[in-house]
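User: what does the whole thing look like in 3D?
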Amino acid sequence: MAKYLKIEIPGTLLAAAVLLLMVVGIAGNAAATIVGETGTSFNLVARTGNIITSDGDSFLMWGYGLESGTSMQYPGPTLILQEGQTITVTLKNELPAAAGNVSIVFPGQIVTASGGAQGLLTREAVPGSANAVTYTFVAKEPGTYMYHSGTRPDLQVEMGLVGAIIIRPKLGAKYAYNHANTRFDREFLYLLTEMDPRIHRAIAFGQYNLVDTSNYFATNWFINGRNFPDVMQANYVATLPNQPYNCQPRMLPGETVLLRFIGGGRDPHPMHEHGNDFSVLAVDGRMLQSAPGKGADLAWMANTIRVLPGQTVDVTWTWTGAGIGWDIYGHLPGQQLAPGEDPADHAKPFPVVIPPRDELTFGQFYSGSPFLGGMGELPTGHPGFNAYGGFFYMWHSHTEKELTSNDIWPGGLVSFMIVEPPGTPIP
Amino acid sequence: MLKIKCLVAGFMAAALCLVLVGTSSAVVYNLRAEATTVTMPDGTVIPVWGYALDSAPGAGDGQIMVPGPLLTVPLDETDTTLTINLTNKLPRPTSIDIVGQVMTNNLGPVWTDGLSDSVISSGFRPPDNYTARMRSFAHETSPNGTQTYEWTNVRPGSYIYKSGTNPAMQVAMGLYGGLIGGSRYSKEVILFFSEIDPVINNAVANGNYGPGLPVSSLIDYHPKYFLINGKAYPALQPLIAGHANQNILLRFFNAGLETHVPTLLNMPHMSIVAEDGIRFRYPKRQVTIELVAGKTVDAVLQQPHAQGQFSLYDRRLNLTNAGSATPGGMLTALQIQEPLVLVPTYQLLLLD
Ligand SMILES: [Cu+2]
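Assistant: Here's the predicted 3D structure for the full assembly of 779 residues, as structure tokens:
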């Protein structure tokens, strides 16, 4: 078996490369923002559906979907709330009867539940019933949170019943918390989950008795419900009907970006950012502060953050090219600074003599020029994924085996931050 | 004698009261290590090794339990020494080790010749012997023997005591318990996390554990039972925590081999105030606690907003008993009682 797998790997890699070609061809225009549902009232339904993994596989899932739609989604709808508002979430259960009841818990919120049947952690929606269970809470404090099933969570969270919550502060939509030092220009969501395919296969074949969550062993990993490179596709792309959310961070030099990490599964994931260190602002929706009103004065710098299951971590990251030691724009002495450029390296020459083209290997994200915004000549057949001459920084799990989808590399917990040259339109 | 002391911690903006019970000049515990069995909620009976608190060394009148009895050293002005008289009723040598506390006698590794069980040195590695293997962190107590272990300068906080001899096997068998340096708070909850892989325990009990035997080591450790205070849900009843207008201290311990993430639902964020017995300069406000193997974490629940039962579970989702479909594992609830009518502070001080 192992021998066959080895023989098949080049073909699979080729398939992955072709998929990458299809995907990233449009990534240059993929929206780099957090999308979700806004409002104070949300009507959700738990349904079954299938998702597609980057190795070309397909898995049965249970997920939360909007009652106004017909499907489930993985993860559930991202609920974008305003601080201080009273929130109502209703849940109906359209899962097969064998799945039993289903519910939602909101860690970090103080929730009142009504309707449905009393369960272990909260009130639950009974299968097939028209009666919804209703959860209400006040979105009391801003921050990043999650929701997930409170009914047999060891199975139901694995099956996909998990989603993100963002509570925006009264201070404004460009702040993470109610303090000036939490301002950001762009924000990105990293809801991390993993999958043990054996459980999904057993459920799909109705063999519930084969499910043993104490043997849990993940071989698939997801950011916002997709593996790499599917994370680079657009939000709501038609080819991934039940996986609406992408993860395609893009920014301009000098901007501050906010990353909202959520440990949605059951394993910890050490997420690592290339290109610069980041500042850890908040955990579980609370600023790291020494006293109220201080802002995130206890924020600390790192380049790898362990995201625990059930935990949320907010970090900010910025990039100007500072410290790189050469002018990223290739400016000559006397030329003007680009917006956001670090003056220390202005007009410093590129330290490498670029070899002739036939001695180079051209990576898929190479624009043909080492300079930001530079577009050089590319060999015939190069996919040309780098539409604006941006710098691609890999943001990924440092548990390197998680950079796969069912043993196929690249996949899993990989994304790329694209630092685009000044003036690039970023939707 | 009952003494109550009140302590105002600046960041908590409210008083935590300490109750000191029956202090004496020396804190001496007579622990007995012995084999017994535990029964899981699904009826599975598992051989374990545990500790009992006896009235005198070798008295044999205490009950063996897993985790072992909670030990406290009040740490008042004169009293900072912990003495444990360990009586060994196990078939193997054993000892006691407390990470974060410095043992003041009998400390030092114990070496075997690496081929058999024979001890060749207690203390230094035998000179010029490069094949000796270390088996114990502290001097061993032989089967049927009794030995005294002493810590003369106990540090305050929450700690784990456990077997210091072949701990990979003996801790997995159940030889662990909690130690609290300093007085216990009047309102505190002990949440002691651990796991059991029955394959390991059965192999040890049946003489099938060790080099060259069917189960050679913990390399294939896959726990099937996930315990808080030695019990899995539904055997674990709600834990009475305190009253809604009190600050409640939650002491988390993890003697298992895996990371657990205790999470409390429908409550304001916990204030994490210390880990490994070391106090933070600023508390961390979190819903989740990172409780890695061998860790202790102290967190304060600041004046819960309401009375009732509030679920506490492992967010690593170890919520099954050996894979069963019915709820199990690391799931319990904190029982918060109705708000207390507050007694004026001077009355509490009169009791001191
Ligand atoms: Cu890397």
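In plain terms: Helices of chain A lie at 2-24, 153-156, 197-204. Confidence is low (pLDDT under 50) at residues 1-27 of chain A.
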